Amino acid sequence: MTDTDRNTAPAPRDGDPAHSTVYWTDLTPGTGRLAPRAHFPRGGRQLMLDGTWSFRLSPTVDAPLDFLAPGGPAADDPAWSPLTVPGHWVLQGHDVPRYTNTAYPFPIDPPHVPDANPTGDHHRCFQLPDDWPAPGDAGTVLRFDGVDSCFKVWLNGIELGTSKGSRLPAEFDTGPALRPGRNDLAVRVHRWSSGSYLEDQDMWWLPGIFRDVTLLEVPPGSIGDHFVHASYDHEQGSGTLRIECDVPALVTLPALGVHDHPADLPLHLPGVEPWSAELPRLYTAELAPLSGARPVPLRIGFRTVAVRDGRFTVNGVPVLLRGVNRHEHDPDKGRAIGLDTMRQDLLLMKRHNINAVRTAHYPPHPAFLDLCDELGMWVVDECDLETHGFIHSDWAGNPADDPRWLPMIRDRMRRTVERDKNHPSVVIWSLGNESHHGTNLGAIADWTRERDPSRPLHYERDRTYRHSDFYSLMYAPVDEVDRIGRYEEEPPPETADSPATEARRRGLPFLLCEFAHAMGNGPGSLTDYQRSLEAHPRCAGAFVWEWIDHGLRRTDENGETYFAYGGDYGDSPHGGTFCIDGLLFPDRTPSPGLAAYKKAIEPVAIDIDPVTGRIGLRNRHDVRDLSHLRFVWVLERDGTPVAEGELKAPPVAARSVGEVPLPELPEPAPPPAAEPAGHEDASGAEIWLTVRAVLAADEPWAPAGHEVAWAQVRVGASPPRPPAAGAGRSVAATFDERSGLLRDLDGLELAGPFLDVWRAPTDNDRGMGENSVLRHWRKAGLDRLVPRTESVERRPHELLVRSRWAPDGLPHGLRVHHTWAMEGDALRLAVDVIPEGPWDGLTLPRVGLRFTLPAHHTRVRWYGKGPGEAYPDSAQAARVGLFTSDVASLQTPYVVPQENGRRADVRRAELVDPETGLGLRVSAARPDGLFGLTVRPWSVEQLEAAAHPHELVPGDRLHLHLDAAQHGLGSASCGPAPLARHQLRPRSWRMEILLRPLTAGDQP
Questions:
Q1: What is the pTM assigned to this prediction?
Q2: At how many degrees (to 10) do helices 526-535 and 478-485 cross?
Q3: Hey, which residues are catalytic here?
Q4: 110 close to 197: Cβ distance less than 8 angstroms
Q5: How far apart are CA 440 and CA 52, in angstroms?
Q6: pLDDT tens, position by position, 853-885
Q7: Could you give the CA distance from residue 810 to residue 780 in angstroms, rounded to a whole number?
Q8: Which terminus of the chain is less hemmed in, N or C, by CB atoms within 10 Å?
Q9: What is the C-alpha to C-alpha distance for residues 207 and 226, in angstroms, rounded to an integer?
Q10: Cβ within 8 Å of residue 940, ≥6 positions away
Q11: Which residues have CB under 8 Å from 372's CB, separation 6+?
C-alpha cells in the first residue's frame, strides 16, 4: 500500500489544482511511495548509493528524458557533469543559492510556480551484488532521506513514483524494475513545486538530493514497522514495555531479564532506570520476527512525558528546557551535513549547558535523533511546514486553511511522526512554524493525538492554542515573561471573548519557542531571561534563535574567503543578513553569545558569601544530583594564582540547595618593591576567589575537568607595595597648541583623546522596523559630531582643554573638559563629559575616549574582565583576571562587521611592541574608575563601512577606545531592546586615567 492510498481528501474537481496531472504543482504529496514507517534497517543488507552522480541542469521542467535510456547519458555529453550526492547543485557550480526570510522567491500564486523552474536531472549507475535476492525471493526498497523540493524517480527506465516534502523520507518498492548486475537510477528534481509553498522556513533555498540514497534488502517475513511504547512510573520506579509490530515478533532485553517475550503484550519491569536528557539510559534490545527473519536492534529509553497541573513533566518531574533552535547548515555543503557534524553540534550544545533542541523548522537527519538519544537532549520535533510568505497576502490563500491542501500537510506530519516515533529524546511534536491558523492544523493535531497520545503538541502561531498543549510565544520581553509566569498576562484577542478557550490557554505551561535573536553581537539579557524562567513553575523553558549562522563559504576574485548571505549571489528578492543569526559562526566556531548563554543557563548556581563564610550551591538540574561534579577553587592576586584547593561538596539533589564552608584562604603578601614598575597600582592588589564546578569523570560529551559552572567574588586586597625603583622618572608629553590634543608621549606617537560616542552599529542596533535605536541615533546626529575647541589653558602644573562636540543642524551637544597633569612616571588625564541641550528620550551608543598609536604595538595585556568580549548585558561569561592577546585575536569576526571586541571592567592595560618591548600602559587613576577597552587595527568608520570581514584591512595606526560606558545589546534585530538599566542615557560622566610609556625593562 502506498501512503497516498490512505488519504481521505475531498475529491478533486475540474479546475482544481489537485486535479492537475502535472506532479510538481498538484496537491498530492507523492505517487508510488510506500507507507511511512520508523527509520531502521529493514532486516537485510543496505547498499549506499551516495557518491558521484551525473548531473544536468535545465532552466525549465520540460528537458528531454533522454537520460532514461539504458546506460544513461553519454560520457562525452557536455550538458552533463559530475555531482556529489548528497549535495545541492547550487553549491557545486550550477545556478545560485537564494535566501529569503519570509518572502517567497516566486509569485504568490498557489499552487503554481514560474515557468523558469530550474530542474536537475541526476543519473547513477550501480552494480547490484551477485548474491542480492531476485525480486521474487525478497523485496527491495529504494529510500531517499531528503530531496528538495519535488522529484520523480526511474529505475532502469521504469517510473517508480514522485514525492514532495523536502526534509522527509520517501521509499519506493523497486519491484521488477531492479535487475541483476548493472542498474540505472535516474532522478529528476524540480527546484520549485507546490510543496515549496509549505517550506518558507527562513533559510537558503537549496535544491537537490541532499540526504542519503539507500537500497534496502527486505527479506521475506522481515519487520516493516514497529512502535516502541516504553513508559516509566516514577512512583514505583518501574517501566512498562509494549511494542506494536506489523508482524508477530518477540522482544529480548537482557539487562532487564527479558527473553523472547511477545512484543505486543505489555510487560511490567521493576527496577528500570529512566531515560532523561541528563541521564540518557538506553537499554539494548532486539525485536525478532517469528518468521525467522533477521532481528531488528533496538535502543529503548523508558520515560513518560505529560503536562500535569499546568507544568511540563518527564517521569513525574518538572523539566525546564534550556534550548536552541537548530537549522541544519554547513558553510560548504548546505543541508547535506554528515554524522561528524551532527555529533559536533551536540557535543558543543552539551558542553555549553544546552539541554533541548527545537528542530527548526523540519525534522532533522534521522541520525541526529539517534545521537540525541545517546548523548541526552530533549527534542521538539517539528513538522516540515511553514507558510510564512502568505503574510504578504494578508494570509489570503494560506494552505493551512484550505482543505484542498490537507493531503499535503497531513502527509508531512505523518511522515514526521512515523519516522521519529521511537526516539525517547523526542518529547514534543510540533505541528510546524508560522503558518497562521486553519482547519488543516486542527486535522493534523487530531491525527497526531490519536496516533501518539504519549507526547504533547506544540504550535505557536494560532493564538487560541486550541491545537497546542503549550502557551507559546516568540521574542517576548523579560517583563512579559514575568507576567506570564505569574498568570497576569493579558489574554490574546483570539481568546478574550471565549471564556472556555481562555481558561484552557491560561492553564497551559508556557514555552518561549524563540527568543534572544542571536544576530551579530548579542543577544543581551540572557541571564535576566533565565532567572525569570526559573522563578515561575509555569515556564517550561525557552529556545534561542538560533544555533548557527547560515553563511555560505565563498571566495572573491582576489582569492579572499568570506561567508555569503542573502544578496551576495545577485539573488532577489532576498533576506539580506537575516540568516546570520546564530550562536555559532558558519564554520562552527562558538560566538561570544554562546559563552554568554552557557553562563546564563549553567545548571549549578554558586553563591560565595565572604561575610558569612559560606558557599551556597543551588542544583538547577531537573533529575541529576551533584555527585558527578567536583568543586575546585583558586585564589588570585591581580590575576596571578596564589592558592588553590577543592571543596568537599555534598551531592545536592536535583532542584535543591546545599552549602559548604568557605575554604581557609591564605593572606597574600605584598609584592616586593623590585617587581617591575606599574605591574599594579599603589592602591594595592585585588584578591579574587573563583569557584568552579567541573566534571569529576569523563562523560560521553566531555572529558573530566570540563567546566560546567563558576562563580567569582572579591575577598579583599593586599597592602600596597613600596614604591618601585624608577617610579620617579619623568616623562615628556607634546600637545597640539590649538586643539590641546596629545601628539607624543615620551617618543610614542600617541594621538588623542577624541570624544568617542559612536560605534559601528550592531545588528541589534539596526533593529527591525520601528524597533531600531540606530534610526534615533542617526536622527540625533550622533554619527556626525564635530568638535569646537573653546580654550587651551596652560597652568603651572596642568593643561586644561575645553571643547564642545555637536552635530550639524541640531542644538544638543556634549561639553568636554580635559585636564592633563604629570603624576610621577605617568601622565594623568581627567575628562568630564556634560550633555547640554535637548537630549530628552535619547540614548547614546557609547561615551569614552579614542586614541591612535603606531600599529606595531600588537601585544595586549589587561587586568579586568575576560578573556572574551563583554557588553553591559552580555558580560556574565567574563571573569576578572589577567589576560594576554594580540590585537588580531581581540577582534570578533562577526560575518557582518559591527561593534565587537570590548573588554569590560578593565583596571589597566598594556599595548607593547613585541620586537622592542616599548609601549603604553593605561590604568584607572581611581579604584572605582574601571573602563571598557577596545583595540582595533581599523577605525570605527572602516568597520561600519565593511560588508564582510575580509574587506577590513589593517592600517598603520591602532585605534584605542577607552569607554566610560556603552549602550547594551538587547536583541532588537528580532525582539526587544536592551533592558532599561542597560540603556545609555545622557548624564555627566567623568573618566580619570594614567598614561605611562613602557620600556623594555618594565615588562614582567
A1: 0.95
A2: 0
A3: 434, 514
A4: yes
A5: 40
A6: 999 999 999 999 999 999 999 999 999 999 999
A7: 8
A8: N
A9: 32
A10: 758, 759, 760, 959
A11: 346, 357, 379, 423, 425, 426
